[in-house]
Amino acid sequence: MSSLCPLLLALALAAIPSAQGACPVPGDLKKPDGTRTCARLYDKSDPYYDNCCRGAELSVEPGADLPFLPSDWANTASSLVVAQRCELTVWSHPGKSGKTRKFSAGTYPRLEEYRRGIFGDWSNSISGLYCKCY
């Protein structure tokens, strides 16, 4: 029975869907010409991770400093991916004011899972950003 437990555990872990879902891998954030992208924001997320990182996309260049997001992107992002060796700092109000959070390299398919204060989360709450790469 003890040799069966590791096998069952391996099968159970293989059956769990990855938290990444349909989101790109941070190492794949590049433009068609091969130049680097610092982060990519998406306007769609879903309770099912496989349906996240969909819809409209906003690609952010390394060194981008946007205290005011374009009007169609203010308080719209609900999924994001930060490239390897990069960091995305976001603010909840225009002009780099309000709550702030730093997202390190990685995939964040549901910003609803990241707290913004006691009662809020970061889904549809990003109004300004700064992205840097090392």
Automatic annotation (TrEMBL):
Q: How would you describe this protein's topology in the membrane?
A: Peripheral membrane protein
Keywords, in A-Z order: Cytoplasmic vesicle, Disulfide bond, Exocytosis, Membrane, Signal
In which compartments does the protein localize?
Zymogen granule lumen; Zymogen granule membrane
One Gene Ontology cellular component term attached to this UniProt record is:
zymogen granule membrane
Q: Which domain of life is it from?
A: Eukaryota
Any one of the GO BP annotations: exocytosis
- Signal peptide annotation: 1-21
Annotated function: Functions in exocytosis in pancreatic acinar cells regulating the fusion of zymogen granules with each other. May have a pore-forming activity on membranes and regulate exocytosis in other exocrine tissues.
Q: What's the protein here called?
A: Syncollin
Q: Which organism is it from?
A: Jaculus jaculus
